[in-house]
Amino acid sequence: MRPLTYLVAVSQDGFIAGPDGQTDEFEQGPAIIEHIAEHFPETLPTAARQHLGIDDKPRRFDTVIMGGSTYQLALDQGAKSPYGHLDRQVVFSRHLTSGFARDVELHSDNPIDVVRELKAGDGLGVWLCGGGVIAGAVLDEIDELVLKRQPLVLGSGRPLFAGRYHPRRFELHDRQQVDAVTVERYRRTAG
Ligand SMILES: NC(=O)c1ccc[n+]([C@@H]2O[C@H](COP(=O)([O-])OP(=O)(O)OC[C@H]3O[C@@H](n4cnc5c(N)ncnc54)[C@H](OP(=O)(O)O)[C@@H]3O)[C@@H](O)[C@H]2O)c1
User: Fold this and answer.
1) 78 assigned to some structural domain
2) How many domains does the structure of the chain reveal?
3) Given CA atoms 19, 147, 71, 54 in this order, what sign does their dihedral have?
4) Which of 8, 68, 80, 154 could bridge across to 93 with cysteines, CB 3.0–4.6 Å?
5) Strand order of the sheet with strand 170-178?
């Protein structure tokens, strides 16, 4: 079974972006980029990888999944295939009908069914890039959380998980301080 990892930057008050999708307050300094390049290089956008000279084969993830709002941001920045170095880019949207790249798979089906099918297939891990709406929809299938916790309170914004009250327990198995950012890794507890 391929694990599903939700790896995302999050504020102290649990937001992954401001109310209008702002992420400019999140720390993107050289130390955290270096840390991600070393430990999770697949999660850097293709353009950033090219800029940094990273062209190694995926070791941890070969598939990314994301919500329509997260993908829309990439489209707005002119990145139709933001993670083109991965084997599969899966986007959940009921409204997008055009403007996406040919190597992006659009799904309007129930995300949990799609994720279960992906996890049951062959290959490396599956990375959930965001956002909180899709994370809430597939919470039952998330095996690992990697939280790039920012020393920042936003006050309001897009939550790490959106959706119904649905407690699920994870245990901390690693924590690293990378300049001002704390990178925390959690695994889902059994049962
Ligand atoms: N901090 C970070 O590291 C990080 C990482 C990623 C994203 N973000 C931020 O997160 C924000 C977006 O997150 P979000 O939680 O608002 O949205 P999201 O999860 O990215 O996307 C929500 C969208 O997914 C689609 N969707 C939802 N349920 C669906 C279903 N059952 N079937 C098919 N499609 C479905 C809909 O798209 P349609 O409306 O197109 O149908 C919905 O509007 C952005 O502002 C981005 O900046 C931050």
Assistant:
1) yes
2) 1
3) positive
4) 68
5) 104-107, 88-92, 61-67, 125-130, 4-10, 144-149, 181-188, 170-178
What ligand 1 atom has the least distance to the C-alpha of 70? 20
State the pLDDT confidence band at 28, using cuts at 50, 70 and 90.
Answer: confident
- Which amino acid, one-letter code, is at 179? D
Residue 127: which CATH number?
3.40.430.10
pLDDT (tens digit per residue) in 43-53: 999 999 999 99
Distance of CA 134 from the midpoint of ligand 1 (Å) = 6
The pLDDT tens digits of the residues spanning 100-142 come to 899 999 999 899 999 999 999 999 999 999 999 999 999 999 9
Q: Which residues have any ligand 1 atom within 6 Å of their CB?
A: 8-9, 16-17, 21, 23, 66-70, 73, 92-96, 108, 110-111, 129-134, 137, 158, 162
> Which pTM was predicted?
0.97
Give the domain extent around 77. Answer: 4-13+27-154+165-184
Separation of CA 135 and ligand 1 centre (Å): 9
